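Deliverable D2.4 — example input (structure tokens):
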């Protein structure tokens, strides 16, 4: 076979394997702050 046909077959095989990937996906977890930070009141305590 020519090198071009081998290359196209290899790219197609790698693409098919990547498309069939069933690995678990990462879940993004957003954590809300439990307490609020102190705010500036304009006076020194």
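Example output (designed residues):
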């Amino acid at each position: 076979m020519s090198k071009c046909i081998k290359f196209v077959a290899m790219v197609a095989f790698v693409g098919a394997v990547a498309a069939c990937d069933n690995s678990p996906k990462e879940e993004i977890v957003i954590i809300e702050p439990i307490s609020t930070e102190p705010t500036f009141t304009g006076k020194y305590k």
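The longest helix spans residues 3-19.
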